[in-house]
Amino acid sequence: MLQGINLACVRGDRRLFKAVNFTLEAGGLMQVHGPNGSGKTSLLRILCGLSSPALGEINWCGASIRDLKGEYFSNLTYIGHLSGTKDDLTVLENLRISSALAGEHVSEIQARDALMRMGLNGREFLPAKVLSQGQRRRVALARLLVCKTKLWILDEPLAALDVMAVQLIQELLERHLAEKGLVVMTTHQAIDVAAISTVHLRLT
Amino acid sequence: MAINWYKYASPASFYALAGKMIPFFTVLAIGLLATGLYIGFFVAPTDFQQGEAYRIIFIHVPAAWMSMFLYVIMACWAGIGLAFNTRLSSMMATAIAPTGAMFTFLALWTGSLWGKPMWGTWWVWDARLTSELILLFLYIGFMSLQAAIDDPRRADKAGAIIALVGVINIPIIYFSVQWWNTLHQGASVSVTQAPTMASIMLTGMMVMVFASWMYSIAVILKRVRSIILERERHTVWVAELRRKGAL
Amino acid sequence: MLFWIIQRDLLLAIRRRSDVLTTLFFFVIVVSLFPLSVGPEMNLLRTMAPGIVWVAALLASMLSLGRLFSSDYLDGTLEQMLLSPQSLSILVLGKALAHWLVTGVPLVLMAPVLGIQYDLPADALFVLVMSLLLGTPVLSLIGAIGAALTLGLRGGGVLVSLLVLPLYIPVLIFGAGAVEANMAGVSYDAHLSLLGAFLLVSLVLAPWAIAASLRVSME
User: Fold this and answer.
1) I need a labelling partner for B245 at 20 to 30 A (CA). Which of A139, A193, B215, C46 fits?
2) From the CB of residue A45, how many other CB atoms can be counted at a distance below 10 Å?
3) Which residues in chain C have their CB less than 8 angstroms from residue B171's CB?
4) 3 state SS of A151
């Protein structure tokens, strides 16, 4: 379903990677490994369509994502380094607004339910600026619970999370994969996610 | 005769082609410039209304024309670069900007030199001079935006957008300034409004216009070559040139 | 979608009311500096008033451009906007309109008070408000292009002024021109119609350019 053909990325004078090829089918998990500065985030941003590769093509269901545009975006949830939470909005508003931005209108009950499952109950009406780094991460990840997209692209989803939350995310990923979803993720922490097929992509 | 245009769209082959073209245009530019200046300052008769001061038009008018042409050409190249993602077109746009700004400045400077004997002041808020000044601001905006961006790909595209926005705005700005000027009864004499221009004057001016074109082409090609080398400094063909001692 | 994004930006602006007030007070202070610099001669001030108010509105609107995208850029919301299945042009149109509601409308409302400082007659005050009402949205729309292009650049604030001030000139000419025409006793209809035309053209073209600029800047 998601296919990368001969991808290359250049940043300034440096070639980060070249000739990256992969195919990911429904229910497949791709873990991107590599040291700092090897281009993991760049690769994920390219896969999202945020930036274009120096060379190569990305196909979704056989069509180039450059042609699909909005259609591809409606299948995609990307959670990057920046959590996208607004300091001045409450936790609940943050979740509802970020979901609406992704085209998913979430009722207050659904949103509160998702926040409760992420362990944020009792904090729904706090402004996001008083949250800790890990709690902000949880708010961002709560979007995965309410958005019904097929492809999840997650950049270091486990950063700043405690053991309980890591466990929660692992279960979440496994359920998504079991429902024929696709996951592309980077992580420095060892995580054991059961999937129909797992692709390991190593950047050097 | 089939010319393979695509071949010259690659920076490496264009670099070589431009290298061959520069001497040709340089010689033409020098020749035309010498002829034009000779006609302008020695052959053309003295104007009975404006005296010797009118001779500035041999520099002022070509410079003003070039400043506008070059902005449009720059925007075209930038637009092509943005639409088709052709690197060379964007490099052309970047190379044109300083020459365009130079001609704009020259037009303003000579306009002001002409204004002193004609109007008695160095600067008059005349419609043409004001538009020319705004054009200079547009050039400066384009160049400062490109200079502020480190990543050449982003610089090319961002420059292209501002150049295209500018080119849509130029006619609007021009007509607004014209309207503003007539409302406030500004100076009615304009540099280019010589009532009847002797044909020798016209010839001299046209020669100078061609000289400016040739000069612009030569300088822009030279600058494109530098930009190509800078951007492609890590490629094999540049290393090859360096090894041969061609740099 | 359009209303929804406007609603969100207004909510954020309400949570940070001080930003709105800063722009407004900047406008008031700049306009009040002129009598101090050119002298309190009322006839002189009356003829200069339209130009002064308009230039100050231009500067105030331009200074507030920095906030248009930068906070969304820094916290990652802008990335999510680019990945939204909705049209990015509509989204940025909403943001530009919200920017106008938050910065432009207060300027329009404050302008008559400042006009009184300069002893403008009542009908000139009315024309001033009308011209600002038509002109300030154009400033927000054109300014948003500059803000999007300079996103995350060093010295972005100064750079944005180099980029957008020359493009503001037609709006300035016809905005201030409308008031001057009224004070000179001639019709100002043409000025206002042209400002309206600028508004329509920028409503159609600017969102597209803003969206393209954001994609370039986010690469």
Assistant:
1) B215
2) 22
3) none
4) strand
Residues 6+ apart with CB under 8 A from B83: none
How much is the ipTM here? 0.91
CA-nearest of A164, A162, A143 to A153 is: A143
Cα–Cα distance for residue pair A88/C56, rounded to 1 Å:
30
Q: Could you tell me the strand order of the sheet in which A76-79 lies?
A: A76-79, A151-155, A182-186, A28-33, A197-202
pLDDT band at C126, cuts 50/70/90? very high
Kindly report, residue by residue over A72-83, the tens digit of the pLDDT. 998 899 998 888
Residue among B203, B217, B207 nearest B34 (CA): B207
Contact at CB, A13 and B234, closer than 8 angstroms? yes
Asked if B126 contacts B190 with a C-beta cutoff of 8 angstroms, the reply is yes
Mean pLDDT within B209-223:
96
- Orientation of helix C66-74 relative to helix C88-99, angle to 10°: 130
C79 contact residues in A (CB cutoff 8 A) = 50, 78, 80, 82, 84
Domain that holds residue C77: 2-218
How big is the A-B interface in CB pairs under 8 Å?
Answer: 4
**Strand residues in A71-170 grouped as ranges (E):** 76-79, 151-155
State the pLDDT at residue C108. Answer: 96
- Chain A CB contacts of B151 below 8 Å: 11-12
Q: How far apart are CA A18 and CA A168, in angstroms?
A: 35
Query: CA-CA distances (angstroms) from residue A5 to A2, A11, A57, A69, A154?
Result: 10, 19, 5, 18, 20
* Whole-number Å distance between alpha carbons of C59 and C123: 25
- Report the SS3 class of residue A19: strand
Count of domains for chain C: 1
